[in-house]
Design brief:
globular, 5 strands, alpha/beta, binds shikimate-3-phosphate, five-stranded parallel β-sheet, 185 residues, 12% strand
């Protein structure tokens, strides 16, 4: 982490757009967002945390009480809200890029970065966590692969940049991401 802060972070100009991280559950969006937050000295917004705080309920509780559609509308609300503020690093929930209007909103003030990993790695990363209602009773490679495949085209269509996270450190991921962002300038 130190290394990347020195090499990529040193002299890093402040963000003038949002960096929006999308991708399947367990692809490392939150970890990468925190690292980028340090590098750019920027605010990090964790979509799920923001929603849970606003609703004063956990994500599984929101799904159970109000259903998925209600949760999806909260994701859309957050993206609309964000347009009004200064640039942030936004770590999106895994389903946020499935709505076209959300992707339009992400792209309006930001660069969209897709993080990827294979189903086996995802399973390793999520297996001890009970906070993801869509994986309840489906913590196996086949179920994860199926949902990933169903989402894949939308993820890729939304992405300005795609970063593979398999067997890589967070520092390496951030470094590649920043290099690719610079290439787009
Ligand atoms: C979801 C991903 C979760 C959370 C919710 C739904 C999804 O976020 O928003 O459980 O539809 O993929 P993470 O991707 O941060 O786990």
């Amino acid at each position: 982490m130190k290394e990347i802060e020195m090499s990529a972070g040193g002299g890093q100009s402040p963000l003038d757009y949002n960096i929006v991280l999308i991708g399947f559950m367990g692809t490392g969006k939150s970890t990468v967002a925190r690292c980028l937050g340090k590098i750019f000295s920027a605010e990090v917004v964790e979509m799920d945390d923001w929603i849970a705080k606003q609703e004063k309920r956990s994500i599984p509780d929101i799904f159970e009480t109000y259903g998925e559609e209600y949760f999806r509308n909260l994701e859309t609300n957050l993206l609309t809200e964000m347009r009004k503020g200064s640039p942030v690093i936004l770590s999106c929930g895994g389903g946020a890029a499935m709505r076209k209007e959300n992707v339009d909103e992400m792209k309006r003030g930001g660069k969209v970065v897709l993080l990827t990993a294979c189903p086996e790695t995802i399973l390793e990363r999520v297996k001890g966590n009970e906070n993801r209602p869509l994986l309840k009773g489906k913590k196996d490679v086949e179920s994860i692969r199926k949902l990933m495949e169903a989402r894949c085209a939308k993820y890729e269509a939304a992405a300005d940049i795609i970063i593979h996270t398999e067997h890589r450190t967070v520092a390496e991921i951030c470094e590649e991401l920043i290099t690719k962002l610079k290439e787009m300038e």
